[in-house]
Amino acid sequence: YQVFKGFGSFAGRSSQMMKHANRDGIINALYGDGGLQLKVVRCTIPPDFNGTVTEEMEAENWIQQEAKNKYGVSTFIASAWSPPYKWKTIVGQAAGKGMNSLAVKHYPDYADYISNYIDYQEKVGLPLYAISPQNEPEFPTTDWDGCIWWPKDTATFVRYYLKPMFRDRGIKTKIIIGETANWNFANMYLALASLYLPDEDFDIYGSHGYSLPMFPEFKYVIYGQQVMQWRGVASNKERWITEASSTDSFDASMNKGIQLAVSISRLLHTGNINGYIFWSSLQYPSNEALIIDNRQGGFFFPRVYYVYGQFSRYIKPGHIRIGASKSLFAINSNIEVVAFKDPLLNTFSVVITNNSKGRNEICALSFSGVQLDENSITAFVTNDQYQWSPMKLSLQENGAIRIKIPPLSVVTIIGKIRV
């Protein structure tokens, strides 16, 4: 199955983090060995870039430099929320309301603008792996920057302006298309865009990992758990979740953690994603952030942070997803399972989520055609009582791993394969 590129988080809206009294601790919690060990940083293509470094750009670059220099992070991607406001159909308006879009006469200007930003990142030692010309192109925002791009608009801009500009300037940065808010909606958007866009002109299908607005208020979204297999899109393209969080009332418990675990698992095993980026790294109490600023110079971790670590600490760039048949766990639909292997080190990582609120689940993991190094096998659990804590498992005579998964828990099992 797919080769994984990494887990990450967003470096935007970053002045709060750069000015935080415990900023080094926050950075370590995101990228350090004792933290999430994230390997990807997402940043912003600003709408007012002219070569001058703004306060926000300085903060984002600081996070990227810290991640790179201290923790070896080398994968940086950038998304635009809006082209320069003066080039839009409603001149000077930041938001996407009123179906505000990029004026066609400024397509060449915007292609040059993005290319200049890529050059800037290169000059400061932070070369971009990929860029997206528009965050959530379907959404007519009212309170923040936005811009409407219909699928054919995206295809036209990328095919006739952005990709030719990259070729002329020798830019190797990958191009992401899409980044719509919901995975299933993204399929429709990307399939339509792909009708007008040759495969050689872009590299990555992007989506966000949000649900549709939740009934009955339709005022918030959560982690998208309805994940269908895409149709009508190229099978040879990387697939990334470039943003995900939950916008309902703050809940630091495993209720949100389990929602995240189910969403990530399904996006990995059904969506075949190659990368996953959480929305915000640090905020005041909010489900939108991995780390919570306590407003007193400190910070704390909701369960979502630890659940994310059950994936990010053990599924690394270069790992390959392997089949994990749900029939192994068919007695209970509350179980989600996803498995990866490291082809170089012959190690494996299996993440199991028990979505049940009151039932322990006994799982037996059998590995087809290989022998395990029984001395290498370890399991870690996160729930409301524990975080990344070692737990007991047993090896059966037939080589299967037997383990009890507590209610509302995420367990990661790692080990080596004998060769």
TrEMBL record:
EC numbers, comma separated: 3.2.1.45
Protein name in the entry: glucosylceramidase
Coiled coil location: none
Organism: Leptotrombidium deliense
Cited InterPro entries: 6GAL-like (IPR039514), GH (IPR017853), Glyco_hydro_30 (IPR001139), Glyco_hydro_b (IPR013780)
Catalytic activity entry: a beta-D-glucosyl-(1<->1')-N-acylsphing-4-enine + H2O = an N-acylsphing-4-enine + D-glucose
Single GO cellular component term: membrane
Similarity comment: Belongs to the glycosyl hydrolase 30 family.
PANTHER family for this protein: GLUCOSYLCERAMIDASE, GLUCURONOXYLANASE XYNC
EC class name: hydrolase
